[in-house]
Amino acid sequence: MEQEMDFTEKIAPKAHGQTKKPSLAIDPADLIEHIAPKAKPAQRGRRKPGQSAAKKPQAPSAAEKPPAKAEPAAAPAKPRRQRTAAKKAPAPAVTTMQPAETIAPVVPTPAKAPAKRGRKPAAPQRKTPVRIIPLGGLHEIGKNMTVIECGSDMFIVDCGLSFPDEEMPGVDLVIPDFSYVEKNREKLRGVVLTHGHEDHIGGLAFLLKSVDTPVYSSRLTLGLVEGKLKEHGLLGRVKLNVVQPRDTIKMGCMAVEFIHVNHSIPDALALAIHTPAGVIIMTGDFKIDPTPIEGEITDLARFGELGNRGVLALLMDSTNAVKPGMTMSERKVGESFSNLFQRAQDRRIIIASFSSNIHRVQQIVDYAVKYKRKVALSGRSMLNVVAKATELGYLKVPDGILIEIDEINRYRPDQLVIITTGSQGEPMSALTRMAMSDHRKVTVTPHDFIIISASPIPGNEKLVNRVINELMKLGAEVIYEKMYEVHVSGHACQEELKIILGLTKPKFFIPVHGEYLHLRKNADNAVAMGMDPKNILITEIGKVVELDGVEMKVTGSVPAGRVMVDGLGVGDVGSIVLRDRKHLAEDGLIIVVTAIDSQSGQIVAGPDIVSRGFVYVREAEDMMAQTRRIAKKAVENCMASNVHEWGNIKNRIKDDVGDYLWQMTKRTPMILPIIQEI
């Protein structure tokens, strides 16, 4: 208990009758040495020959007293008195500080005497190790999740999702593997969320179905989490705790301090994790915006304070590490919107953006008011986020501006702005359905002026280009990022990353959040600033990174990977199912149906051949007839060989039919034999 109280006192000391200075995580002896340094060697050089340094000066006798003109001979006594005073100086200095027991570090160590001159300094003291275990967000975009563990305590930072790629046909979402957390649920002290984007909160509801733990974050982030918990029937069962920047919460033997940062969604937070081994900073997603739409700029002062005290490790966002310079301010988009609203003239304006970019939505609403247009929303996530942001006061919409999407036909095109989802070309999004003429409420015409206010996430470029092409075919004018400044990123570029590195001055650096090229570039930036490459680690999900205040090393691994969500199924789609889906998509399916007499073993009906996704049967009748004969012969050969096991018969049909179809088409469709016994 004494250690825990000391640790809490170190983070947030309380007054006890008088104001105390913040505690420092150093030994009292080191503090004395720092406050009152010893006299310089130059002063020692003025000592009388043959007099010992430790010998106390004595007053000369009356007989030995020199005449007045020889008075300068007593000058050496002055430096001796100065040196004696220097030795005594620490005593009053220490009395103004906190008692020794209140400034002890988390892991108490014996008091060290001041280091003597000429001797090597003592080796650094190893402290209680802390483990950092990424379960997502490395070598990928999205699915961010990190476990911080120390002793018998651990907590989670973020729990996001990612969207499936072309290698995952039929999959809806991808979430992290929670098996390590579920196995160690008795250690779990809570979940901390940095902000409300899907890649940081999208997997939380799936985790909370299997573990019961409190959640901590800002008001808007928890407001968005509430909607997800309601969908999964968890609302009311999970304790949600609202925090503010500069707040500190306890997580067992650790504590988490929240720091305000700018991002493309309000209420984004960075974390300063105070552990027995030292302070670990996790920036989350951030940028440095000197002119934010709402709120203050990133709390650089706090990063600097922590850096001056000493930062053990920095885990920093790498998403834009390949981009030089600094990210533009969100206000730059507003200037572009002003010009584009004028350019649209009498056409209807349709703007696609991320639903979570509330600052962007606020600017669209402001210009709609200025140019006397009504605003309609399209897309489920856009409706949910705008409703929650308006309810909590983060989005300010004047009365009468928002209208239902069903009412747009009552207004002229020059009176409307439609804000929609689908900026990433998602197949089922509202903008994609508009482009494919499949939207039930909105029909795109040459009288539409469409702005895609987002940049494609890596991997989505083809989807976005496809949507742009289809919209242009319908006659609409399409404005996208490469043409005008209609989007700015929410992530820091190289110069901003260097600023945080310079302020925090970490001993160790771990780049996070991005594919390998992003992580590598972020590491290169640190090296360019003079950081030792040996203190930089590009790790992988599942690896256990341990820090003890002296060194950083990988000590093992835990179960980690991707869990696919397909409909209501979580984790029931694995590599084998995906392989079969890809096989079906690439080569199609052949079904061989045969009926056999259970007594005689003779073929009663069939085999019949059904083709799906392989060839069109009516255009390949000869090949289908030969396939039928080969399947029949395979069954007859099995019966003649006294083989009655269905599994063996099916394998024989698959082998013989597969060999024939490969010779004819050089394709390998999935062959599914069905045997009915009569």
**Helix count from the secondary structure assignment:** 20
Q: Which strand order spans the largest sheet, edge to edge or round the barrel? A: 7-6-5-3-2-1-20-21
Residue windows where pLDDT falls under 50 for at least 5 positions: 1-113
Strand content: 15-25%
Task: Determine the mean pLDDT.
Answer: 80
Structural class computed from helices and strand pairing: alpha/beta
Output the radius of gyration.
35 Å
Main β-sheet description: 8 strands, mixed
- Termini, distance in Å? 77 Å
Query: What is the molecular shape?
Result: globular
Helix content: 25-40%
What's the count of strands? 26
InterPro entries: Metallo-B-lactamas, RibonucZ/Hydroxyglut_hydro, RMMBL, RNase_J, RNase_J_2, RNase_J_b_CASP, RNase_J_bac, RNase_J_C
Function: An RNase that has 5'-3' exonuclease and possibly endonuclease activity. Involved in maturation of rRNA and in some organisms also mRNA maturation and/or decay.
Pfam family, one: RNase_J_C
Keywords: Cytoplasm, Endonuclease, Exonuclease, Hydrolase, Metal-binding, Nuclease, RNA-binding, rRNA processing, Zinc
Describe the model:
By secondary structure, the protein is an alpha/beta fold. It is 31% helix and 20% strand. The strands form five sheets. It has an eight-stranded mixed β-sheet. Helix 9 (219-231) packs across helix 13, helix 11 (331-344) packs parallel to helix 12 and helix 19 runs antiparallel to helix 20 (646-665). The radius of gyration is 35 Å and the shape is globular. 38% of the residues are buried.
